[in-house]
Amino acid sequence: MRVLLTGAAGFIGSHLAERLLARGHEVVGLDAFDPFYDPALKERNVARMLGRPGFTLARGDILDSALVAQLARPSAPVDVCCHLAALAGVRPSVADPLRYHRVNVDGTLVLLEACRAAGVPRFVFASSSSVYGVRSHAPFREDDACDRPASPYGATKRAGEHFVHAYHHVYGLDATCLRFFTVYGPRQRPEMAIAKFARLIEAGAPVPLFGDLTSARDYTWIDDIVEGAARAVERPAGGFAVYNLGDARTTTLAELVRLLERALGKRAVVEPRAPQIGDVPLTCADIAAARRDLGYEPRVAIEEGIERYVRWVREAAA
Ligand code: NAD
């Protein structure tokens, strides 16, 4: 299969590109090397793939409709567009909602339009657990109401799902939306909690903990997410499908810090802070649908994943 993969230089995108190449697919990557975090890290992410047979990389913006149209062009047919490029992260979306909207919503529409015009038959969209908003009961199911996003980021991801559905309905696009639940592992975005906490604990610096230590997240190991996403890329939805991809277990903030302390062999200097706008108290995936249709099965529990992540951080620093 020939896959147009946006966000190919990012954390999840670079892992997914490698997995797709290893499974014999062709990958046309597109990434703007956005400065949301150090683009040098993204260069490192793609360096291992550049020059590998089956991989090409376009450096450019998903908002550049001429470029996107050229990449989706019918003379080199794309079988599926897997759209991961986005501005990720909840808190910065509160500070710059218009930019989030442009990249995450307009950008998704540019891709959908290019796919429609070029006759790309399938679309896989990276959505997020953020679409569920503030919820106190678990687990979250795909058919739960998602009409109260708690951040501009969550709203852009939900809007993206809506547009993907509209293109399915109007043009018959075969479409899958994947709701990722907090992903961690090697190459994790540096501003995400696990990467940031590990850095601060290692350095003996204060670790700001926002809100209640009982707030809980469903943390998903990168290889598990990538396996689920690769399966969704390979398997037509047969219409329109939405899947949670998570670990289906929750870990409190207090427990997360304890696991990091154990793996790093150091105590955290904790600094309690007020909750941040946009944060939600709980995420927890019901993964029955992904299990049933994709054969998705998370394999790395948080205890093991944190150990592996810390090993990777130390090897990368050595
Ligand atoms: P990431 O920031 O590492 O990857 C996103 C990539 O998109 C980056 O390489 C960036 O340069 C690229 N990009 C940004 N704007 C672009 C533009 N205008 N044109 C082209 N490329 C652009 O983030 P990630 O954690 O790998 O997330 C990948 C996807 O998964 C995103 O859609 C994100 O919203 C979603 N997601 C991630 C998580 C998570 O825990 N990491 C959870 C839920 C959803």
Structural features, described:
There is one protein chain. The mean pLDDT is 96. Strands 3-2-1-4-5-6-11 form a 7-stranded parallel β-sheet, sandwiched between helices. By secondary structure, the protein is of the alpha/beta class. Helix 5 runs parallel beside helix 6 (152-171) and helix 9 (253-264) crosses helix 11. Strand 5 (122-128), helix 6 (152-171) and strand 6 (174-180) form a beta-alpha-beta unit. The protein is globular and about 60 Å long. The chain has helices at 11-22, 39-47, 65-71, 91-95, 97-118, 152-171, 193-203, 222-234, 253-264, 288-294, 302-317; strands spanning 2-6, 26-31, 55-59, 80-83, 122-128, 174-180, 183-184, 206-210, 216-217, 220-221, 240-245, 251-252, 269-273. Residues 6-7, 9-13, 30-34, 36, 42, 61-63, 84-88, 103, 107, 126, 128, 180, 182-183, 189 line the site of nicotinamide-adenine-dinucleotide.
State which percent range the strand residues make up: 15-25%
- Shape, please? globular
- Count every helix, treating DSSP H or I runs of 4 or more residues as helices: 11
> In terms of per-residue confidence, which ranges show pLDDT below 50 for 5 or more consecutive residues?
none
**Bound ligands:** nicotinamide-adenine-dinucleotide
Biggest sheet, in brief?
7 strands, parallel
- In which range does the helix fraction lie? 40-55%
| Structural class by SSE content | alpha/beta
The count of β-strands is: 13
Strand order in the sheet with the most strands: 3-2-1-4-5-6-11
Strand and helix order: EHEHEHEHHEHEEHEEEHEEHEHH
Q: What is the CA-atom radius of gyration, in angstroms?
A: 19 Å
Q: What's the oligomerization state?
A: single chain
Span between termini: 38 Å
- Determine the mean pLDDT: 96
